[in-house]
Amino acid sequence: xxxxxxxxxxxxxxxxxxxxxxxxxxAMHGVAAVSELAAVELPCAIHARxxxxxxxQVQAARLVALAQSLLGxxxxxxxSRAVLREAVSVAQQHLVRALDAIHLGTAVVxxxxxxxxxxxxxxxxxxxxxxxxxxxxxxxxxVDFVPPYR
Amino acid sequence: MDRxxxxxxxxxxxxxxxxxxxxxSGLGAAxxxxxxxxxxxxxxxxxxxxxxxxxxxxxAATGACLSGFMAALDWVRGEP
Lengths: 150, 80
Known about the structure:
A: alpha/beta; Rossmann fold
């Protein structure tokens, strides 16, 4: 069974059931690997809405617990020196934001490790620009893009 | 039994395999479906298997409006 490296955007969509979730669900039924970074990004996104007055503190706390519950079903990948090195390398070749680059660097390191075992990875994201870069890195057929919900 | 058959169909695995996974999940153990192949890359292993039905219940229990989070993530990642 191949490993799918799942970006925080796909985790977030699944967490809050926004749009067509088929591809994200498929990833979670297999071996889902997520950068440790997601454990910061998801609470930050939730708390940001609380600070803007769009959620109460109680709701935000419940939603953070929900996100953590979902992350608890994935294998978290460390933000290692190798991941950071690959993130910079990705940014050298493509126009990406720093946090997107770290997720992609995580996928590159995971792909290399799996290749040594004769296996390949998939990359699942709901971010259209990140998906474009992922396709360039891993090939069209290795990227699962969770489509926009609006 | 119907839920187990549905789970088996959705996950593309045999009924027996789906049953074993459901039992393991019920006992609080994460399925070892291969995450160990990631070796030392893993900083935190999965604590349990993903169960969409159980997760949907948790989601419903939050009682919060569950839309608009993608824009919040974009903001976290540096978009205005």
